[in-house]
Amino acid sequence: GFRVHPKVSSAGFQRLFGNAQRVVDWIRKREEAATKVSVLGRSIKGPGGKKGELALMGRVKQNSVRHKMLLKVSEELANLDALNCRLHLQWLDKGDDPKKDTMLSLHRFFFPSQEEEELNYSGAWSLDRIVAWVIKNAQPMVADDIDQVYVARQLEETGLEASVVAILGEEVQSDDRQQVADLFRTFAGSYPRWRFAVPSHVSEDKEEQLSDDHKALLHMVQPPSVVLTQRNRQLFTLDGLQPLQDKERVSDFFKQVKQGVLRPTYKSQPLPNRDRDDDGCLVLTGRTFADHALDPRKNVLVLFTPALEAPKSKAFSTAFSTVARSLKSHESIVCATMDGMQNECEEEMDEIPKVVLYPAVAAKKKMSKRQVYRGRPDAEAMLDFALETSKAPQRDDL
């Protein structure tokens, strides 16, 4: 039989308000008790479980310090959205040593054949160390299911740095898929705080059961491609099956991300049919923003607009059109627009419409030297702002 440890902390619940699906998932996860106490026998035998589930098996003296420690561990793990882990306890016999005979193991159900399903803990018995050990070993080196992929919020709560996922698509053959998985496995030891995955193709029925974050991940790129998500929510991509099977290309990609020298991949509309609109403004997307706005040879005046034309947005668009026509033949100022709802870039767009001047300075200084227009949607004031804040390109800045 089993006795249930009833206390499940609701601290994690406080972070969920505002996302209905995550609240539902939180409740479902806690429908089953976080801790089960087994009194069925002396030997520890791992319970059955579904793919992606974990069982932390502890053999301790009842009411001992280590017993209480594991209950705290259970509470910590129950509040991690990234993990589905249950603690199973078994009591030592009266003659057993409460330290020497104590055992702790982690059972990982349906792990890849290259990795052990059961791990034994041999470190110091402290809350932080045991929790860290479970987090470190909760995922396969290379997962094969989209459900096992850590999205940004799960990276944040576990303290891991990045998730690397190969989105290969339905047409990629199983041999090619295995080649990418084997290649990822060679890098796993060099990036211990990254998690890798080569998930199998996701059917429509399976996709319906995924979280919104995992659905977005599937449709973020045109497969085959690798998506690397960092804890700070920055994304990086490497596209094409051939590069994904080239160890040198993949290694360079990982190194550039790690060193912070690679531009993140941003949400982007497809490239427009026309580079410029009727007013002569460049039409920017998340993919092309840096090519133009961060070009050190240009002063670029950008209007970030919302998708819906509210009165304020319409007033800014009208004024900006007038400014763009006035600057159409200007030698050093280029006007551009971007749909701030359908695209993302280096610029914060928490409030749009927004007008920003990126001066003609070195690319690495563009963001720090940029000027944000704070005035009304007035064409004359906006034009004065562009002329006053623009700079003549300096040779040293190129």
Separation of the first and last Cα atoms: 74 Å
Helix content: 25-40%
Share of β-strand residues:
15-25%
Content-based structural category: alpha/beta
- Continuous helix count: 13
Quaternary structure type: single chain
How does the overall form come out from the CA principal axes?
Answer: elongated
- Using only C-alpha atoms, the radius of gyration works out to 27 Å
Number of E-type strands: 16
Mean pLDDT rating: 87
Going across the major beta sheet, what is the strand order? 1-2-4-3-5-6
The description of the largest β-sheet is: 6 strands, mixed
- Give unreliable regions as ranges: 1-18, 39-44
Strand/helix succession = EHEEHEEEHEHEHEHHEEHHEHEHEEHEH
Structure description:
The model is unreliable at 1-18 and 39-44 (pLDDT under 50). The protein has 398 residues and is an alpha/beta fold. α2 (65-78) packs across α3 and α11 crosses α13 (379-389). The chain starts with a strand and ends in a 9-residue tail after the last helix. The chain contains 13 helices and 16 strands.
Q: What does this entry show, briefly?
A:
α2 crosses α3. This protein has helices spanning 20-29, 65-78, 127-137, 152-158, 174-188, 204-208, 212-218, 241-244, 247-259, 289-293, 311-326, 366-369, 379-389, and strands at residues 2-5, 35-38, 54-60, 85-91, 103-108, 118-120, 142-143, 162-167, 194-197, 225-230, 235-239, 282-284, 299-305, 333-339, 354-358, 371-372. The chain has a 6-stranded mixed sheet, covered by helices on one side. A 5-stranded mixed sheet has the order 7-9-8-10-11. Strands 12-14-13-15-16 form a 5-stranded mixed sheet.
